[in-house]
Amino acid sequence: MKKQSEITAQTRRNLVDAFWALYCEKRIEKITVKDITQKAGYNRGTFYEYFADVYDVLEQLEESLIPTIHELPPISIPNQNIGVPLDMFMTLYEQNSKYYSVLLGDNGDPAFASKLKNSTKPVIRQVFLENYNVDSVEFDFILEFVLSAMIGIMSYWFSQDKILPAENLVLLMYDLMENGVMKRIQSKKI
């Protein structure tokens, strides 16, 4: 029985890998079940044992890449000056960079960034609202702004082949969050 479940898992993985190779080359609406099964070496019937359609492959893949609340590391604010936990996002992004760089890129899935943000918001929101006296509605806007910026800057970092060392990127993001863009730019004035 264990052997069968290993074969089933491998077949599913092969189909997902074939889909991913195609998705990296072309937009999802141009990918067919036939393309996936030919690339993976299976028939259409096998595909439909695992997925409803091409969009279901993408959905299941994305779901596997988005951490659940229980998978996220605990957030602590030891010195009460620390902002959103950038290390957590960097680790998450680096672990899944093969997928994130495409899904969050120009030809990726626009909904993926929202899914990623929405998976982390509850944890961050809870910690900050417990430790700071901030209006919860206003904080939702702040959190959306910060998470969008973080996802954007990390996507840009990957698209630029990590030209800036990771440590420098984290320091830059902390500086931008704590001091703002204009303060950073003005400190570099000629």
TrEMBL record:
The keyword Manganese does not apply. SUPFAM superfamilies: Homeodomain-like. Gene3D superfamilies: Tetracycline Repressor, domain 2. One of its GO terms (molecular function) is DNA binding. Signal peptide: none annotated. Keywords: DNA-binding. Residues 32-51 bind DNA. Residues 9-69 form the HTH tetR-type domain. PANTHER family: ACREF/ENVCD OPERON REPRESSOR-RELATED, TETR-FAMILY TRANSCRIPTIONAL REGULATOR. This is HTH tetR-type domain-containing protein. The lineage of its organism: Bacteria, Bacillati, Bacillota, Clostridia, Eubacteriales.
